[in-house]
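fyi for ur records
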Amino acid sequence: MDFYNHDSKQTDAVETFDPVYNTLFSFKNQVDDFYIQFLDKEFVLVEVYALPLETKQQKSASGLIRLGQAKLPLCKLLQGDYSFQVAEIVHHSEKGEVTLGKLFYRMRMRKSLDKALSYYRQFTSLKNEREK
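which gave:
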């Protein structure tokens, strides 16, 4: 999983066709205008990999096969929507895109963004008025 300016994080490998991860990732970030804009426009990229059967037997991490990816929009955090969401895991190839499955997830902020959002909206409103 890739998010903002943090190192990529990964879950533990699971041997099943119906994995349940229940993984918690936590990131500490400074909330400023750039961060609010990032949350408004960007997403978390989740990549899904498979470990070939012979590699599982060797217990080696090399030889992973990238199956697909899911993009989790961050704008839901600004909307205060902390409910469970769903994103499609999509495999991209020369022949087109194929949906492999669905990823159910939930994101939340540890602290409220209300004050930062209010300030950001006021600031952008004043900036837009000055540019007219």
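DSSP finds four helices and four strands in the chain. thats all i got for now
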